[in-house]
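INPUT
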Amino acid sequence: QSVLTQPPSVSGAPGQRVTISCTGSSSNIGAGYDVHWYQLLPGTAPKLLIYANTNRPSGVPDRFSGSKSGTSASLAITGLQAEDEADYYCQSYDSSLSGSVFGGGTKLTVL
Amino acid sequence: EVQLVESGGGLVQPGGSLRLSCAASGFTFSSYWMSWVRQAPGKGLEWVANIKQDGSEKYYVDSVKGRFTISRDNAKNSLYLQMNSLRVEDTAVYYCARQISCSSTSCSNNNWFDPWGQGTLVTVSS
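OUTPUT
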């Protein structure tokens, strides 16, 4: 059971927009800790997509965006492409556990 | 190019030990906190341990406290994870990752991980 809750799966057709939610509690996201997002493709190193809620590292397409409100955060992907099919994870910090915590991951399927 | 390369994974029996290594290149290793993160088969990511730049502070997830030890050698640009008393539930791909709290444009109130290594598989089975 992950500390941060994500939907197990989402799907969308090419060109569409999808969002992935990440729900926490008062000891992590609700306490004001930032949320970061990663993309995991099979056999490759995890890749940072969004840091500090809304910031994209250089090289990440602007089709990817992040937001945060209250005890939740979201990753939005617009103009879906086949190459976006991957697992996505949110990450934050939990003050009661005194360590970084991840969501359970969301598998994105491009139909 | 900033790069992290893990090694040392393999098959070990329950109760056994294994030492993972992570070789860093392309950045000033001694300037960063470093972490180990794992992913069990079919499961999500789990932060395991981290270590301060000079090795003076170390933190662990509860499930590995007393069994795993994180260390580093800044002269060799290397991070290590000594794993003792291994359990079947420690089976996972283990990634090393650099921790960052500030980019050139903004800072965060908690670290993110970038980059990550490709991972090394640890299998604990009899």
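end of record. Chain B touches chain A through 30 residues (CB under 8 Å).
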